[in-house]
Amino acid sequence: MPAMIQFEIEKDIAVVTLDAPGEKVNILNETFLRQLDETAEKLNREKGLKGAVVLSAKKKGFIAGADVHQIEEVDTPEEGTRLARQGQDILQKWGHFNFPVVCAIHGHCMGGGTEFALACNFRIAAPDAAIALPEIKLGILPGFGGTQLLPRLISLEKALDIIMTGRTVKAREAESLGVIDHLCEQSDMKEEAFRLLRDAESSEQAVSASRKKKKSGLRTFLLEKNPLGRAVLFSITEKQMQKKTKGHYPAPERALEVIREGIGKSLEKGLEIEAKALGELIVTTESKNLIHIYNLSQRAKKPPFDDVEANEIKKAVVLGAGVMGGGIAQLMADKKISVILKDIKEEAVESGLESARSIFRKKLKRQGRNEDAVSEKMQLISGTTEYKSFGDVDLVVEAVVEKMSVKQSVLKETESFLPESAVFATNTSALSVSELQSASSRPDQVGGLHFFNPVDKMPLVEIIHGTKTSDRTVATLHQAALNFGKIPVIAADRPGFLVNRLLVTYLNEACLIAEEGVDWPSLDQITKDFGLPMGPFRLIDEVGIDIGAEVGRTLCKAFDYLQESKLMQKADEMGLLGKKGGKGFYNYQNGRSAGPNLNIDAQLDLQKDRNATEEDLERMLYLMVNEAARCLDEHVIASPEDIDTGMVFGTGFPPFRGGLCRWSDNVGLARIQESLENLEKRYGERFKPVSFIEDNRNFYGES
């Protein structure tokens, strides 16, 4: 078995190095844990040690967490509990030597890696350190001691926030919270660790010194230092949690319960409670589905071709300085790419630059950064109305108006100023990339790069493969999306591509149901109860009624089996825009929903004969399932995994359900086929089950 952990003695101090051979990162799998245990036993046998420092030899970071595949394979609560207790026992050894231990953290320190660091006596970190307990996002909780160690180290309120959200804490914040004892440059960490160890004669002193950093004050005293205050804090946290999860995610509720039960007990008893809870959560359907989503996000990072090299993107141009253009420029600059924002009018350029600046300002304010940091980021964006400085550009992203003639004209004009290697990508949400290519002198270097609004928040990007798009261009756009911090999915050039095709099918059906006399707010409610982030009519407002009407019209013409609803068209003709106009199906104040628009029923001649039923929900969802299967039949998309990736990261399809295809398999395709056949008899051809559904027991091919 290759050594993953080595140590050498320097001046009575053990320097422990974590370095899994042949791996890019250190993972707390079974082998790694066993070697941690063996190393702890060896250190215990060493005579005269005054301390130990633990470092990682990996460039990317300390420990990337536990092995997700091992978590996925656990199928009984007893096995989950056993694994948790095993991990707890091994990590706890590192904080109970008769000498102190310092963890020296750089880069990522996730999950079990954070729990290992918490078990040690001191933690120092480089400025690039990123620390998290993200287990809640996998439908479980920190099971190697995290739920018990963190609340004993820092403010209970802050510990609850970190555990319940799974968010990543950057080094500076981690130090201010007391998670990290000292920050220093990575090159100085070993020396800093040695200094700390020389100052601490025992692990008890180290623990005492470390915990002095725990913040205190009147709020802490009132909420954390007495049982009544803690009860209030837990009650507030529980209400906030329920508002966010709506009962669909059992892990946050259980994590809160474990922390509440363990906080007044011994550490050993608290660890027992934690391990039992992990065992129960690890086998839930929600956890298995959330791990599926995690695997999808990792799968998307794999290059689309084994033998095709992507072009490097150092400089880019964004054509069109509207909301999308400004957002795309900000995203690129945030990833340290020099970008030119071009429009035909100076005022449009200034507006686009201000949009980018506003996004930076909000983001950096949350990080405690000032206006100087915003200015530093904005230095990477320049605005222009001319085709200047385009001679060394690697990527052009076109985000002008959704008219093919305009896009083709812009493409022709821009190409003459670009180097031969530059890739041109359109951000169109529905127009044909192949038709756009017909205007190009180098169509193989033209593809689609479809961002979703708002660009800085929506994780998905669709890569559109036109009929003449080369594999190298696809590979370049795929790698660019990854560099932008996005999750890419590759789709063929068909109307609506993947996400909008499925989404508009769903929205159009919702409008048809409302036209039949179903109360549209009740349709919004029933879909939210299912777990979608917002109902169809709230989503139409969010997208923009004008855009929804145009895309709906386009797709219904492209797919003649769809029955077009006139509801959005009527609303569009009346000048209702949705959120961006302050009024649509809902009213809006300062960009926030202010309740349903009570006048819209009369304006659109809508009758409300009944509330939405489960059959109405099935009509909307099963029609999407049928359309997803059609996309597989037509090779619009390569696999069910791509569909689930697009739906979860592009539309907010409930992650706890695992994605549209995985949810369909859980329901059963046979049952869905039967329902579609019944719906076809009542509502027409659009519900006719496609061949994929008729030929397969489920999407993922499992019996």
Shape-level CATH architecture of the largest domain: Alpha-Beta Complex
CATH class of the largest domain: Alpha Beta
CATH fold topology of the largest domain: 2-enoyl-CoA Hydratase, Chain A, domain 1
What does the oligomeric state look like here?
A: single chain
The CATH homology group name of the largest domain: 2-enoyl-CoA Hydratase, Chain A, domain 1
Share of β-strand residues: 5-15%
Q: SS-based structural class?
A: alpha/beta
Number of domains: 3
Shape verdict: globular
| Residue share in helix | 40-55%
The average pLDDT is: 93
Radius of gyration: 28 Å
Q: Kindly report the spatial arrangement of strands forming the biggest sheet.
A: 13-12-11-14-15-16-17-18
Give the strand tally.
20
Low-confidence stretches are 206-215
Major sheet? 8 strands, mixed
Number of helices: 31
Cα distance spanning the termini: 37 Å
How would you describe what is shown here?
The chain is of the alpha/beta class and 703 residues long. The protein has 3 domains: 279 residues, 2-enoyl-CoA Hydratase, Chain A, domain 1; 178 residues, 3-Layer(aba) Sandwich (Rossmann fold), CATH 3.40.50; 196 residues, N-(1-d-carboxylethyl)-l-norvaline Dehydrogenase, domain 2 (Orthogonal Bundle). The strands form 4 sheets. The protein has an 8-stranded mixed β-sheet, with helices on both faces. A 6-stranded mixed β-sheet has the order 1-2-3-5-7-10, sandwiched between helices. A hairpin with a 2-residue loop joins strand 1 and strand 2. It is globular, with a radius of gyration of 28 Å. The two termini are 37 Å apart. 48% of the residues are buried.
